[in-house]
Amino acid sequence: MSVEQPNKLRDRLDNFVDQARENEKKLRRFQSLELRLIGHDSLFALIKDILYPEKAHFQWDLVTLLLLDPEYEIQRILEEEGVNLGKYPTLMFATDRDDIEALYPVSLFPVPGPYRSRRHASLFPQRPTKAPASIMLLPLQRHGRLIGSLNIGSYDGERFNRKVRTDFFEHFSAIVAICLENACNLERLKHQGLTDTLTAINNRRFFDQRLEEEVELARRNADMLSCLLMDIDYFKQVNDVHGHQIGDQVLMDVAALIRAQMRNTDVLSRYGGEEFSALLAHTPESEALEVAERIRNSVELYEFSDADGRPFKVTLSIGVATLNGRLQATAPTSGQVLVGYADRALYQAKGAGRNRVLSQGELSATVEQSD
Questions:
Q1: Is 131 exposed, middle or buried (0-12, 13-18, 19+ CB in 10 A)?
Q2: Beta strand 357-364 with 316-324: parallel, antiparallel or unpaired?
């Protein structure tokens, strides 16, 4: 045996050991990130860790996430968490499964390769400097169906060439998909506990939780907060004449009509029975009255239908009260005081003939409710 042969064997063995060590380091990095993802109980916190992994550990220049969201459910969950989706252009949503499946026409395995502007530009919006040279697309799937795509880009053209190993990425994409599914399911469970099952809007429990939070924010920021209490006029007659099934449909339709006149940031709830409540942040009395009048008018103009398809009308009475957070002294106003004033305005609207909007005006942040 020549001297060169042992040297070649030694070099090959050294290369093998070096590669094994590098793979072990890579495995540890992936495992560390996976443990972080698994530990999240907030959907938004999970998404942020997916989009912004530590660059010291992962040489990924660009990371974007495309999620299947045909009913806009995920977007609503995030917006209800207070997330401004416009600030996160790397988080994208698809309403059609075909848009994601088109990225993986051959198989549901990671796809490395060169960046192609025609195919991949939409996956990497608002690039900070330049387009990536190579990419790795990770299909996120559960039970054989795609739920999204995690897209990684590198300015190094060889970083994700077609010869790169994809087994780590395949495992990682499975973990990400599981975490996303679990986080969405957890948010659904939370939402169910705070949602009225009939109208699919927030329930009284959710409203009560948000009430004090919004009052405190208005006081702290010297801002305006308006409260609307809305009651369907003569609702008992609807149930007596048309039956409870039609009454339930009226409640659902009225909830939808109210929701259509409000912003996504407004808090709309079923307050109880045929009564609805709303909190409008950053809203002075004049604007709250405009919103209330639009709601009242949309309900008055809407044609409801009985079991035989015959149309009938329903009207709404609305009470408004506005907290002026700029007017503060010592004893803070509670949320229940604000609701109490809105309830008083609603009672007056009922007494004045119904189908109208009345306001108690602006309250200082220190007003106390009188008997």
A1: middle
A2: parallel
C-beta separation of 279 from 226 below 8 A: yes
- 195 in Cβ contact with 203 (< 8 Å): yes
**Number of domains, the chain:** 2
Residues 147 and 219 in one domain: no
Q: 274 an active-site residue?
A: yes
Helix (H, G, I), strand (E, B) or coil at 127: coil
- Does one domain contain both 225 and 148? no
Residues 93 and 221 both lie in one domain = no
Q: What does pTM read for this prediction?
A: 0.55
Give the pLDDT of the chain (371 residues) as one tens digit per residue.
555 666 666 666 656 655 556 666 666 776 776 777 887 878 999 999 899 887 766 778 999 999 999 988 899 888 877 788 999 999 999 999 999 999 998 889 999 999 999 999 999 986 556 889 999 999 999 988 999 999 999 999 988 988 787 888 898 899 999 999 999 988 887 777 888 889 989 999 999 989 988 998 888 888 999 999 999 999 999 999 999 999 999 999 999 999 999 988 899 999 999 999 999 999 999 999 999 999 999 999 999 999 999 999 999 999 999 998 877 644 456 889 999 999 999 999 999 999 999 999 888 755 544 44
Catalytic residue among 73, 81, 213, 274: 274
